[in-house]
Design a protein that fits this description.
Elements (H helix, E strand, L loop, with lengths): L2 E4 L4 H11 L5 E4 L8 E3 L6 E2 L1 H10 L2 E4 L12 H12 L7 H16 L11 H9 L15 E6 L5 E4 L2 E4 L8 E6 L3 E6 L2 E7 L6 E2 L10 H4 L3 H11 L1 H4 L4 H5 L6
Parallel strand pairs: 1-2, 2-5, 8-12
Antiparallel strand pairs: 3-4, 6-9, 7-8, 9-10, 10-11
């Protein structure tokens, strides 16, 4: 049973690791340091895993196994590797860009760190990995994981909820109530009491997505900016107000917002 260890890392680093090793281990042990994107509440027997990261682990097919809190021997010994990495790879180096640093780090992992004689095993790590561990990895999905985000939102009097600096409408009956919102790069899904009530395409920041059917029927013409409706209503009062060439038509002429 192959295990991998990660400290204060998120999905970005995990994805890079799976690509480098060309596979995913069965169990991944995470540290409980805070803040962490993995463990919301450390506990020896019943830890609470971050909901977003748990979905990622399920998609990639590995088990999240948090290290025992306040128990240094309960996790693999990796601290010395950090110092080795800093001194052997980073110290005295200058990088032209982030991409340059990443390329050189991969080369260093394979040709320097991977080919050294390890102080404990007295073997070359890359040879040990290829002979014993590589075949035990599950296949790696090279399609980049689309991270979902969650929010607990209040439906405002204007019928909209705010999610990631964008607005999405809901029917009148939800005004003042709390809903759960889940969004990724493509879709935003809105739930009330566990039931899915709306799905929208993801909007960019500052934009809104409004379903005008969410508004009461008596105010729909106003929300739709229906100029002809407003003119006809004015005509019912007096021709000079809403008739041909009347005051409302004059006001609503030109570029309409």
């Amino acid at each position: 049973m192959l295990k991998a260890f990660f400290g204060r890392l998120g999905k970005l680093y995990d994805e890079a690791a799976w690509t480098y090793f060309e596979g995913v281990p069965e169990i991944v042990i995470f540290d409980n340091l805070t803040p962490t994107p993995v463990v919301d509440k450390p506990d020896r027997y019943n830890p609470r895993i971050n909901k977003i990261f748990l979905e990622y682990a399920q998609a990639r097919g590995f088990i999240v196994d948090p290290a025992n809190p306040s128990h240094p021997r309960g996790k693999p010994i990796v601290e010395s590797s950090v110092g080795y990495f800093k001194k052997n790879f980073f110290a005295g180096e200058e990088f032209m860009s982030r991409e340059d640093c990443q390329e050189r780090a991969i080369d260093w992992c394979t040709n320097v760190a991977g080919n050294r004689i390890h102080g404990t095993t007295r073997q070359r790590p890359i040879e040990l990995f290829k002979s014993l561990e590589k075949d035990k990895l599950a296949p790696c999905n090279r399609v980049r994981y689309d991270t979902s985000y969650y929010a607990y939102c209040t439906v405002h009097p204007d019928h909209h909820v705010s999610f990631k600096k964008s607005l999405y409408s809901l029917p009148t009956k939800y005004i003042g109530k709390h809903v759960d919102v889940k969004g990724d790069s493509a879709l935003v899904k809105i739930y009330f009491a566990g039931d899915l009530i709306k799905i929208y395409p993801r909007m960019s920041e500052g934009k809104r997505s409004t379903d005008f059917n969410d508004y009461p029927a008596d105010i729909t013409p106003y929300t739709l900016r229906n100029a002809n409706y407003q003119i006809s209503q004015g005509a019912k009062r007096h021709p000079d107000i809403g008739g041909y060439g009347g005051y409302i038509e004059f006001l609503l002429s030109g570029t309409y917002p």
